[in-house]
Every structure is written in structure tokens, then in C-alpha cells.
Amino acid sequence: MDEFNIWDLERVNVKVNKKFFNKLVREIDSKFKSRRDFYNQTFDSKFLPFSTFRNFLKISHASNFFIPLEFYLKIVEELDISKEELQSNVTSYKTAGGVNFIEKPILPIKITPVFDMLFAHHIGDGTVINPKKGRLPYFGYKQFNEFYRIAYVKKLESVFGNINYFKKNYFLSSKNPYSPPVISTSFFKYYDYNVYDFLSDRARIPDIIFQDKDRMLAVLIAFIIDEGHIDSTLINIRVKNKGLIEDLKRICDILEYASKIAYRKNYEGSIDTLYIFRDGMERLYRDYINLNKKYSVIDLGIKGEKIRKSFEIIHRSIQNIEGNTDLIFNILKKEQLSVNQLAVRINMTRQGIRYHIHNLLKRGKIKLIDNKSLNWIYGV
């Protein structure tokens, strides 16, 4: 499994365990005549003035303020203490100059299917913020559904550790939670992508993801959440990126999910759609349940529930019984409803409802009440 150590990230400031901090101070005091001698041997005055060095070695300062990781790396190297021991004693970290930080960090950072799913979210409903003045770029995730918004942050935290946002419960109120720059850099580094490679109209799925079935499935699930629509008989994913839709089709082919691409153009340009058919949906859902057991944060939420319920409709033995026409007629005598509402009411496919509605219209038993909205309303 690939992984990142904390020194692989950029512009990191940290707090360390007090016991470990005191160990460093004792080692310095026991092995060197004075702290000035240690400073002269270890640091360049242009990198770190002695007054700052002396302040950094005060427990009161180290406990309350984040200190550049480079400071500790130079100390442990001089004291012949491993970087891994330093890493295991990091209690929190953040981007230098940033306000949001990671508590109880998970280090080293493991590259799991959840990491790849976050990558896909950053393409699907994600935005790349590229600040000026030399600040690091970072990702936002524009999501109006509260479940998926909170789930995004849970995925981040399952990979990196607890995120302490400057604003309490920030991701509950904001429709665009983001990944702090200190951890966003890991996505750029791992996939060797720049900010433009994450733009939805030019993004591609990296080859490394195609090497593992769980990773491919996690990416596909992310696109179902962000760009997918669930019908009773299929899933469709629509994007304005031919290369990306073909990458998703490649995933379906490898995982043996029956699917096809429809290439279409309109006044907005090319909008390509991947359709995952009924057989593919069933295989995908079985694989998803197994992946969810390994990584509980990989959760399809309401869209997963829609897929599950669609199987109840698909396998419903009375689906094509002619008597359902009378059932629908009796309901419409009491209420005026749309095809979608009827499908939910009697647990039938929308295609099946339309078939019976057509028969009732042809026989003059019902009529179209309202065709001004997207969902036409029928009644007697």
C-alpha cells in the first residue's frame, strides 16, 4: 500500500507530544555544552535566528503554537532520532499560516480506495481554489445534500485525522466544505496532477487506479453520488468530458458491469452519458455492499437506497399484470398524480406506469390535468 509521511507534505507546522518534546530538550542539554552550541551546529542563522530557536524550545510556546516541521526534523537528525519516531509523536499539524488543522492525525497517510474516492469527488462536484500570493491550492466540494456533505468530511477524516475547522460545524452550515491545503497537496503529489488536471472538462482517471478493483469501484461510486441519476432499470452518469466518460466505461468493462456510452451534442457542446444497465446495477450493488463492509465511509446514501428499491420493482412478480391498469385507474379517481408519484405509490417502474397510463388515456378513462411542469399530472 502506498503512503505519505508527514515530511512528504508541504509547508507543514506541527505540535508534538509533550513527553517527546521534553525528551528532545533533555537530549540537547545532555549532549551539548549549551543550547547555543547546538544551535550553531544545527541551524543556519538565516533560516532561524537564535532568539526564535530559544523560544521554540520553551514548552509553553510549543504547547500553544504550531512550529515548522523543518525545525524538528533538523533536531532529530542531529540527535540521531528517527523521523518515524518524530512522526509518531505529532499530535496535530496544519499549513503554515493556515487556521484549520488536523488533530489526532493518521500518520503515515495510507492510500486506500477512500483516498481515490476523494480524488473523484474533487473532479465530480469539486472545485480547485488556487489562491494568489504563493498560498497552496486546495479543494472545495460543492454539495447541497447534507448527508453527502458530511460524508465527504468523514472520508477526509478517515484518511487524515480529525479536521478542526476554524468555524465550528463549518461543514454543516457551508454548502462547500473544503480540504485544508496541508492535505490537499497529497492529492496533487500522489497522482502527479496540477490544478488544471482536476477541472471537470479535462480530468482523467489515473492509470494507477485501474490496477485495483476496490479503487475503481470507489471512484465509480463517487461519480454516481456526484453526477449519477438512478432509474428503476439503470444508472446514468452524464459529464461534458469524452475522455472521462470513457475512463468510467473502462472501469465498468473491467468490473463486468453491463453498460454503454451515448454520445450527444447540444447547444452547450458535447454531453456524454454512461448507462449502467440492470444486470450491471445488480453486480455493482453487490460489490458495493462488500466494499462498504471494508470501508464504512464509502456510502451511497439515498442513491444506494434507490438502487436497492429498484430491485424490488424489477423482481416484482405482478409487474406486468394487466390488472394494474385498474389499480392505477382507481387511485387516479381519488387523486391527481404524476407518473413518478404513481411509481412510488405502487412500487412499479416508471416505464410500466407509462404503459398503463397510455392504455387509460386511449380508452378515455383518464386525462392529462397539467403538462406545464416537468412531471405531468393525470386524473379522471
What can you see in these coordinates?
The protein is an alpha+beta fold. The chain folds into 4 domains: 18-88; 99-203; 206-300, Roll (Endonuclease I-creI), CATH 3.10.28.10; 324-379, Orthogonal Bundle (Arc Repressor Mutant, subunit A), CATH 1.10.10.10. The chain has 17 helices and 17 strands. The strands form 5 sheets. The chain has a 5-stranded antiparallel β-sheet. A 4-stranded antiparallel β-sheet has the order 11-12-14-13. A hairpin with an 8-residue loop joins strand 7 and strand 8. Helix 7 crosses helix 8, helix 11 (213-227) crosses helix 13 (278-294) and helix 16 (339-346) packs across helix 17.
Keywords:
five-stranded antiparallel sheet, alpha+beta, 4 domains, single chain, 17 strands, 380 residues
Report mean pLDDT, rounded to a whole number.
90
Biggest beta sheet attributes: 5 strands, antiparallel
What does the radius of gyration come to? 28 Å
Counting H and I runs of at least 4 residues, what is the number of helices? 17
Strand order of the largest sheet: 3-2-4-5-9
Global shape: elongated
Per DSSP E runs of 2 or more residues, the count of β-strands stands at: 17
Share of helix, binned:
40-55%
How many separate domains?
4
| Alpha-beta classification | alpha+beta
What is the first-to-last residue Cα distance?
63 Å
Q: How much strand?
A: 15-25%
Poorly predicted runs are none
